[in-house]
Write a structure and sequence with these properties.
This protein is of the alpha/beta class. 36% of the residues lie in helices and 18% in strands. Strands 4, 5, 6, 7, 10, 11 and 14 form a seven-stranded mixed β-sheet that branches. A four-stranded parallel β-sheet has the order 3-2-1-15, with helices on both faces. Strands 8-9 form a two-stranded antiparallel ribbon.
Protein backbone atom coordinates (compact mmCIF):
# COMPACT_ATOMS: atom_id res chain seq x y z
CA UNK A 1 0.00 0.00 0.00
CA UNK A 2 1.43 3.28 -1.08
CA UNK A 3 1.15 6.24 1.26
CA UNK A 4 0.58 9.78 0.16
CA UNK A 5 3.62 12.02 0.28
CA UNK A 6 3.01 15.50 1.58
CA UNK A 7 4.94 18.47 0.28
CA UNK A 8 6.55 20.52 3.03
CA UNK A 9 6.43 24.29 2.93
CA UNK A 10 8.94 27.12 3.44
CA UNK A 11 12.16 25.18 3.29
CA UNK A 12 10.94 21.99 4.96
CA UNK A 13 12.28 18.89 3.22
CA UNK A 14 10.36 15.93 1.95
CA UNK A 15 10.51 13.00 4.37
CA UNK A 16 11.76 10.42 1.87
CA UNK A 17 15.05 9.30 3.38
CA UNK A 18 13.74 6.38 5.44
CA UNK A 19 11.20 3.63 4.69
CA UNK A 20 7.53 4.38 5.17
CA UNK A 21 7.35 2.17 8.28
CA UNK A 22 9.79 4.47 10.08
CA UNK A 23 8.66 7.81 8.70
CA UNK A 24 4.99 8.03 8.00
CA UNK A 25 1.83 6.62 9.54
CA UNK A 26 -0.07 4.30 7.24
CA UNK A 27 -3.33 5.77 8.53
CA UNK A 28 -3.94 9.28 9.93
CA UNK A 29 -3.58 9.24 13.71
CA UNK A 30 -4.26 11.43 16.72
CA UNK A 31 -1.20 12.03 18.88
CA UNK A 32 -2.75 12.29 22.31
CA UNK A 33 0.40 13.37 24.15
CA UNK A 34 2.77 16.09 22.96
CA UNK A 35 4.50 19.00 24.66
CA UNK A 36 5.26 22.58 23.65
CA UNK A 37 7.61 25.36 24.60
CA UNK A 38 5.89 27.75 26.97
CA UNK A 39 8.49 30.37 26.05
CA UNK A 40 7.96 30.09 22.29
CA UNK A 41 4.37 29.32 21.41
CA UNK A 42 4.60 30.53 17.76
CA UNK A 43 7.48 28.16 17.00
CA UNK A 44 5.68 25.33 18.78
CA UNK A 45 2.61 25.85 16.60
CA UNK A 46 4.60 26.07 13.36
CA UNK A 47 6.64 23.00 14.24
CA UNK A 48 3.56 20.99 15.20
CA UNK A 49 1.76 21.91 11.98
CA UNK A 50 4.77 20.71 10.01
CA UNK A 51 4.86 17.58 12.12
CA UNK A 52 1.26 16.79 11.31
CA UNK A 53 2.13 16.69 7.63
CA UNK A 54 5.38 14.79 8.07
CA UNK A 55 3.91 12.14 10.35
CA UNK A 56 0.47 11.84 8.71
CA UNK A 57 -1.09 12.92 12.00
CA UNK A 58 -4.67 14.16 11.96
CA UNK A 59 -4.43 16.04 15.25
CA UNK A 60 -2.16 16.55 18.25
CA UNK A 61 -3.01 17.17 21.88
CA UNK A 62 -0.77 19.62 23.72
CA UNK A 63 -0.02 19.00 27.40
CA UNK A 64 1.82 21.40 29.70
CA UNK A 65 4.74 19.57 31.31
CA UNK A 66 4.19 18.08 34.76
CA UNK A 67 5.92 20.31 37.25
CA UNK A 68 6.44 20.98 40.93
CA UNK A 69 5.55 23.95 43.08
CA UNK A 70 9.11 25.26 43.43
CA UNK A 71 9.66 26.01 39.72
CA UNK A 72 9.46 29.79 39.14
CA UNK A 73 8.74 29.26 35.41
CA UNK A 74 5.52 27.28 35.76
CA UNK A 75 3.07 27.53 32.89
CA UNK A 76 -0.18 25.81 32.03
CA UNK A 77 -2.78 25.56 29.29
CA UNK A 78 -3.53 29.28 29.14
CA UNK A 79 -0.29 30.10 27.33
CA UNK A 80 -1.27 28.05 24.26
CA UNK A 81 -5.08 27.85 24.25
CA UNK A 82 -5.62 30.94 22.10
CA UNK A 83 -3.07 29.89 19.48
CA UNK A 84 -4.40 26.34 19.44
CA UNK A 85 -7.96 27.56 18.84
CA UNK A 86 -6.80 29.18 15.61
CA UNK A 87 -6.27 25.60 14.37
CA UNK A 88 -9.05 23.90 16.29
CA UNK A 89 -9.30 21.08 13.77
CA UNK A 90 -5.63 20.26 14.36
CA UNK A 91 -4.95 20.95 18.04
CA UNK A 92 -6.51 20.26 21.42
CA UNK A 93 -5.12 21.25 24.82
CA UNK A 94 -5.05 19.53 28.20
CA UNK A 95 -4.37 21.42 31.40
CA UNK A 96 -3.19 21.00 34.95
CA UNK A 97 0.44 19.99 34.53
CA UNK A 98 1.62 23.45 35.56
CA UNK A 99 -0.95 24.07 38.30
CA UNK A 100 -2.91 21.04 39.55
CA UNK A 101 0.15 18.78 39.50
CA UNK A 102 2.25 21.21 41.56
CA UNK A 103 -0.64 21.58 44.02
CA UNK A 104 -0.75 17.81 44.52
CA UNK A 105 2.99 17.56 45.07
CA UNK A 106 2.98 20.51 47.43
CA UNK A 107 0.24 18.81 49.43
CA UNK A 108 2.30 15.62 49.59
CA UNK A 109 5.28 17.54 50.98
CA UNK A 110 3.26 19.66 53.41
CA UNK A 111 0.87 16.93 54.46
CA UNK A 112 -1.98 19.41 54.06
CA UNK A 113 -4.92 18.32 51.91
CA UNK A 114 -7.49 19.99 54.11
CA UNK A 115 -10.65 21.88 53.13
CA UNK A 116 -8.90 25.08 52.05
CA UNK A 117 -6.43 23.19 49.84
CA UNK A 118 -9.20 21.09 48.35
CA UNK A 119 -11.34 24.16 47.63
CA UNK A 120 -8.42 25.89 45.88
CA UNK A 121 -7.69 22.75 43.88
CA UNK A 122 -11.32 22.34 42.80
CA UNK A 123 -11.57 25.99 41.79
CA UNK A 124 -8.50 25.69 39.58
CA UNK A 125 -9.70 22.46 37.95
CA UNK A 126 -13.11 23.96 37.22
CA UNK A 127 -11.42 27.05 35.78
CA UNK A 128 -9.46 24.88 33.34
CA UNK A 129 -12.67 23.17 32.25
CA UNK A 130 -14.30 26.55 31.58
CA UNK A 131 -11.27 27.61 29.56
CA UNK A 132 -11.79 24.65 27.24
CA UNK A 133 -9.24 21.95 28.08
CA UNK A 134 -10.16 18.48 26.80
CA UNK A 135 -8.57 16.70 29.75
CA UNK A 136 -6.23 16.97 32.72
CA UNK A 137 -2.54 16.32 32.27
CA UNK A 138 0.20 15.65 32.40
CA UNK A 139 -0.17 14.53 36.00
CA UNK A 140 2.48 12.51 37.83
CA UNK A 141 2.64 9.79 40.46
CA UNK A 142 6.15 8.50 39.80
CA UNK A 143 8.32 10.53 37.42
CA UNK A 144 12.09 10.15 37.30
CA UNK A 145 14.22 13.27 37.05
CA UNK A 146 15.11 14.51 33.59
CA UNK A 147 13.75 17.75 32.23
CA UNK A 148 11.58 17.98 35.34
CA UNK A 149 12.50 17.16 38.95
CA UNK A 150 11.88 13.75 40.49
CA UNK A 151 8.21 13.53 41.45
CA UNK A 152 6.28 11.11 43.65
CA UNK A 153 2.71 11.26 44.88
CA UNK A 154 0.49 8.31 45.76
CA UNK A 155 -2.23 7.84 43.16
CA UNK A 156 -4.86 7.67 45.90
CA UNK A 157 -3.86 11.02 47.42
CA UNK A 158 -6.99 12.99 48.36
CA UNK A 159 -6.36 15.54 45.59
CA UNK A 160 -6.04 12.81 42.97
CA UNK A 161 -9.33 11.34 44.17
CA UNK A 162 -10.90 14.80 44.00
CA UNK A 163 -9.56 15.24 40.48
CA UNK A 164 -11.10 11.91 39.50
CA UNK A 165 -14.49 13.16 40.69
CA UNK A 166 -14.12 16.43 38.76
CA UNK A 167 -12.92 14.57 35.67
CA UNK A 168 -15.90 12.21 35.84
CA UNK A 169 -18.33 15.10 36.28
CA UNK A 170 -17.09 16.86 33.15
CA UNK A 171 -16.06 13.86 31.04
CA UNK A 172 -12.42 15.00 30.95
CA UNK A 173 -9.83 12.18 30.97
CA UNK A 174 -6.78 12.31 33.24
CA UNK A 175 -3.39 11.57 31.67
CA UNK A 176 -1.13 10.09 34.34
CA UNK A 177 2.63 9.50 34.23
CA UNK A 178 3.55 6.66 36.57
CA UNK A 179 6.51 4.31 36.35
CA UNK A 180 5.38 0.81 37.35
CA UNK A 181 6.59 -0.19 40.82
CA UNK A 182 4.65 -3.31 41.92
CA UNK A 183 6.68 -3.59 45.12
CA UNK A 184 9.06 -1.35 47.02
CA UNK A 185 12.44 -1.62 45.31
CA UNK A 186 15.83 0.00 44.94
CA UNK A 187 16.14 2.53 42.14
CA UNK A 188 17.37 0.80 38.95
CA UNK A 189 21.13 1.09 38.63
CA UNK A 190 21.04 3.13 35.43
CA UNK A 191 18.92 5.79 37.17
CA UNK A 192 21.05 6.11 40.30
CA UNK A 193 21.87 9.76 40.30
CA UNK A 194 20.38 12.54 42.42
CA UNK A 195 17.72 13.79 42.64
CA UNK A 196 16.18 10.35 42.05
CA UNK A 197 15.77 8.62 45.43
CA UNK A 198 17.61 5.40 46.31
CA UNK A 199 14.32 3.58 47.01
CA UNK A 200 11.00 3.56 45.15
CA UNK A 201 7.54 3.26 46.69
CA UNK A 202 5.17 0.50 45.61
CA UNK A 203 2.47 2.27 43.58
CA UNK A 204 0.16 -0.21 41.83
CA UNK A 205 -2.19 -0.74 44.79
CA UNK A 206 -2.76 3.02 45.14
CA UNK A 207 -3.26 3.26 41.37
CA UNK A 208 -5.99 0.65 41.57
CA UNK A 209 -7.65 2.56 44.40
CA UNK A 210 -7.70 5.64 42.17
CA UNK A 211 -9.23 3.64 39.31
CA UNK A 212 -11.86 2.17 41.61
CA UNK A 213 -12.69 5.47 43.36
CA UNK A 214 -14.87 6.80 40.54
CA UNK A 215 -15.40 4.38 37.70
CA UNK A 216 -16.72 7.16 35.48
CA UNK A 217 -13.32 8.87 35.57
CA UNK A 218 -11.25 7.90 32.54
CA UNK A 219 -7.61 7.40 33.48
CA UNK A 220 -5.05 7.24 30.68
CA UNK A 221 -1.78 5.67 31.79
CA UNK A 222 0.84 7.48 29.74
CA UNK A 223 3.94 6.02 28.07
CA UNK A 224 3.08 2.37 27.49
CA UNK A 225 6.16 0.96 25.79
CA UNK A 226 8.64 3.16 27.64
CA UNK A 227 9.42 1.32 30.83
CA UNK A 228 11.82 2.81 33.39
CA UNK A 229 11.67 -0.02 35.92
CA UNK A 230 11.14 -3.14 33.79
CA UNK A 231 7.81 -3.91 35.47
CA UNK A 232 5.34 -2.35 33.03
CA UNK A 233 4.78 -5.65 31.30
CA UNK A 234 1.91 -6.73 29.06
CA UNK A 235 0.90 -9.12 31.86
CA UNK A 236 0.59 -6.27 34.40
CA UNK A 237 -1.34 -4.09 31.97
CA UNK A 238 -3.60 -7.01 31.07
CA UNK A 239 -4.50 -7.58 34.70
CA UNK A 240 -5.28 -3.90 35.24
CA UNK A 241 -7.26 -3.55 32.01
CA UNK A 242 -9.33 -6.60 32.94
CA UNK A 243 -10.05 -5.21 36.40
CA UNK A 244 -10.73 -1.57 35.49
CA UNK A 245 -12.91 -0.61 32.52
CA UNK A 246 -11.98 3.07 32.97
CA UNK A 247 -8.26 2.48 32.32
CA UNK A 248 -6.68 3.33 28.97
CA UNK A 249 -3.12 3.28 27.61
CA UNK A 250 -1.09 5.77 25.56
CA UNK A 251 1.55 4.20 23.32
CA UNK A 252 4.99 5.79 23.54
CA UNK A 253 7.88 3.58 22.48
CA UNK A 254 11.36 3.96 23.90
CA UNK A 255 12.88 3.20 20.51
CA UNK A 256 16.29 2.25 21.94
CA UNK A 257 17.92 -1.19 21.60
CA UNK A 258 18.11 -1.43 25.40
CA UNK A 259 14.38 -0.80 25.96
CA UNK A 260 12.70 -2.90 28.65
CA UNK A 261 9.65 -4.92 27.52
CA UNK A 262 9.73 -3.40 24.00
CA UNK A 263 6.51 -3.50 21.97
CA UNK A 264 8.45 -3.46 18.70
CA UNK A 265 11.02 -6.16 17.93
CA UNK A 266 12.87 -6.17 14.60
CA UNK A 267 10.25 -3.91 13.08
CA UNK A 268 7.29 -6.06 14.13
CA UNK A 269 4.83 -5.90 17.01
CA UNK A 270 6.01 -8.20 19.79
CA UNK A 271 3.56 -11.13 20.13
CA UNK A 272 2.59 -10.40 23.76
CA UNK A 273 1.93 -6.74 22.97
CA UNK A 274 -0.04 -7.57 19.84
CA UNK A 275 -2.20 -10.05 21.74
CA UNK A 276 -2.81 -7.48 24.47
CA UNK A 277 -4.04 -4.88 21.99
CA UNK A 278 -6.10 -7.46 20.10
CA UNK A 279 -7.79 -8.42 23.37
CA UNK A 280 -8.38 -4.76 24.35
CA UNK A 281 -8.71 -3.00 20.97
CA UNK A 282 -10.69 -0.08 22.41
CA UNK A 283 -8.25 0.82 25.20
CA UNK A 284 -5.10 1.98 23.39
CA UNK A 285 -4.30 5.34 21.81
CA UNK A 286 -1.20 7.01 20.42
CA UNK A 287 0.72 9.32 22.75
CA UNK A 288 4.24 9.85 21.47
CA UNK A 289 5.49 12.45 23.99
CA UNK A 290 6.80 14.46 21.02
CA UNK A 291 8.18 17.90 21.94
CA UNK A 292 7.59 20.91 19.71
CA UNK A 293 9.61 22.61 18.35
CA UNK A 294 11.37 19.40 17.40
CA UNK A 295 15.00 19.24 18.45
CA UNK A 296 17.56 17.63 16.13
CA UNK A 297 17.27 13.90 16.67
CA UNK A 298 14.28 14.43 18.91
CA UNK A 299 11.59 12.87 16.75
CA UNK A 300 9.92 10.71 19.36
CA UNK A 301 6.99 9.97 17.06
CA UNK A 302 8.99 7.67 14.77
CA UNK A 303 9.00 4.50 16.90
CA UNK A 304 5.30 4.73 17.86
CA UNK A 305 4.40 5.30 14.20
CA UNK A 306 6.45 2.28 13.20
CA UNK A 307 4.57 0.23 15.80
CA UNK A 308 1.22 1.52 14.53
CA UNK A 309 2.19 0.53 11.00
CA UNK A 310 3.07 -2.97 12.23
CA UNK A 311 -0.42 -3.61 13.59
CA UNK A 312 -2.95 -5.59 11.52
CA UNK A 313 -5.22 -3.43 9.37
CA UNK A 314 -8.35 -4.02 11.51
CA UNK A 315 -6.61 -2.62 14.60
CA UNK A 316 -4.92 0.39 13.05
CA UNK A 317 -7.92 2.76 12.76
CA UNK A 318 -8.88 2.19 16.40
CA UNK A 319 -5.43 2.71 17.90
CA UNK A 320 -4.73 5.54 15.46
CA UNK A 321 -7.83 7.63 15.86
CA UNK A 322 -11.19 6.09 16.77
CA UNK A 323 -10.32 5.28 20.37
CA UNK A 324 -9.00 8.76 21.12
CA UNK A 325 -12.11 10.40 19.69
CA UNK A 326 -14.36 8.18 21.80
CA UNK A 327 -12.34 8.48 25.02
CA UNK A 328 -12.19 12.27 24.76
CA UNK A 329 -15.80 12.60 23.58
CA UNK A 330 -14.80 14.28 20.33
CA UNK A 331 -15.92 14.03 16.73
CA UNK A 332 -13.68 14.61 13.74
Amino acid sequence: RMARIWLMTAGLSLALALPLSAEYAAVPFIDGHTHFSGEDIPSSIVSALAGLERENAAMVFFLPPPDTFDNPKLYDAEVILKAAREHKDKFAVLGGGGSLNPMIHQAVVSGDAGPAVRAKFRKRAEQLVKEGVVGFGEMTCEHFAGGTPYQYAPADHPLFLLLADIAAKHGKPIVLHMEAVPQAMPLPEELKSPPNPPELHENIAAFERLLAHNKKAKIIWAHAGTDGTGFRTPDLMRRLLQAHANLFMELKLDGSPDAKNPPLVEGKAAPDWLKLIQDFPDRFIMGTDQHYPEAPGGQRWRAPVQFLNSLPDPLQPFVAKKNALRIYGMTK
